[in-house]
Amino acid sequence: MTSISGQSQLNMATSPPQFFAFGPYKISEKEVFYSTSLSYAVVNLRPLVPGHILYSGFCVVCLAREVKRFVDLTADETSDLWLTAQKVGNKIEHYHEASSLTITIQDGPQAGQTVPHVHIHILPRKVGDFEKNDEIYDALDEKEAELKQKLDLDKERKDRSPEEMEQEAAEYQKLFL
User: Fold this and answer.
1) 104 annotated as belonging to a binding site for a ligand
2) Is 114 known as a binding-site position?
3) Is 64 within 8 Å of 37 (Cβ atoms)?
């Protein structure tokens, strides 16, 4: 993985497996494709619309420290999180030959946040990917609701296998070399 400074943070070939926290869930380092000392980007377990352009482009930028609400971030965390989202979004948009991005944060349960950990959704967009542009938000809400219903996410990885997610993360890691 690479940090904003371009320095390698983990040697995955020789290091024992590492995990990142995403609320109560463990995320394998092999699913993380970019990190800094304060945040990381991970491929999404539950793609928005299978078979859709967003299927493989949907990613999440998370704060490294587990913080439930955006208002509780430090100035450095806020800056790093958004700079990471900007850098990742740029690379993902170009990789998927998209023309736009939907960047969203759901801050608190009434806003649709189902994982109590500050994170930003990044979705590459193309002309006509949804019949009505704002349908993306309904699709996000639907997927978030499905995720919330799962009692043990680590046992319910049926949308994509860890191998599929690792393969996608490895492709995205190349964008930051």
Assistant:
1) no
2) yes
3) yes
Residue 128: helix, strand or coil by DSSP? coil
8 Å CB contact between 127 and 100: no
Q: Which of 52, 94, 96, 119 is catalytic?
A: 119
Active site residue 94: no
8-state DSSP, 29: G
More confident residue, 121 or 17: 121
Say whether 115 counts as a known binding-site residue: yes
Describe the crossing of helices 162-173 and 75-95 by its angle, rounded to 10 degrees. 90
**Which domains can be identified in the chain, with CATH numbers?**
19-176 (3.30.428.10)
Sign of CA dihedral 109, 114, 118, 124: negative
Q: Which two tokens stand for residue 56?
A: 């493989």
Whole-number Å distance between alpha carbons of 176 and 135: 31
Better-scored residue on pLDDT, 39 or 17: 39
